[in-house]
């Protein structure tokens, strides 16, 4: 049986994390699991969990860790025998530790998007439509969201760096064709339409701890 591959992707709001994750999952045959999707699904179906998390999601606030772990971990436990890619989970150090108690990750991808790129982003990656300017899109609001993301994400990345027994691979590649290539793999994945050419910082983790 092929070795299972367990990976997660992290990125600031507006980084195009959802789009890039789906493409990676599709190209590598990984089960794609988005915490935001599961939350929205629960809210739409008015489940007990959905009612609990609704207020947080509507205000783009972090859902408490114990609720997130209860939402995500049982799903992963049912996926023994599958390779997967997590989008949006773990987001905090408590979530990363809860996850690590059950599964050791093979790879954690951190999308490192310069603030200027996020700020100048004027069009939707997928549709090419101009994005509506909300009050929340003002530079100060964006900066505050980014700072908050970094504060929360940094300990998570540090944990994964500490756990690793292998190398850390960092790649910065720019392309004039709006095409970024997902590195590390033997068969590079074209991340077409990913307009902002992120710097992909890849933290290769050993699965043998
Ligand atoms: P996303 O689709 O990943 O942008 O998530 C949408 C919203 O769901 C976020 O703004 C948070 O309110 C909530 N959320 C998603 N994942 C998590 C998580 N791992 N921890 C806490 N809240 C989350």
Which key terms come to mind for this protein?
6-stranded mixed sheet; two-stranded antiparallel sheet; 8 strands; 41% helix; 18% strand; disordered C terminus; alpha/beta; 209 residues; globular; binds adenosine monophosphate
Record the strand order, biggest sheet: 2-3-1-4-8-5
Instruction: Count up the helices.
Output: 7
Q: How many β strands by DSSP?
A: 8
Q: What's the average pLDDT?
A: 76
Terminus-to-terminus distance: 21 Å
Beta percentage is: 15-25%
The gyration radius over C-alpha positions equals 17 Å
Bound molecules: adenosine monophosphate
Quaternary state reads single chain
Largest sheet, in brief, is: 6 strands, mixed
Provide the structure class.
Answer: alpha/beta
Low-confidence stretches: 165-209
Structure notes:
The protein has 209 residues and is of the alpha/beta class. 41% of the residues lie in helices and 18% in strands. It is built from seven helices and eight strands, in the order βαβαααβαβααββββ. The longest helix has 25 residues, at 139-163. The site of adenosine monophosphate (AMP) has 14 residues, from helix 2 and helix 3.
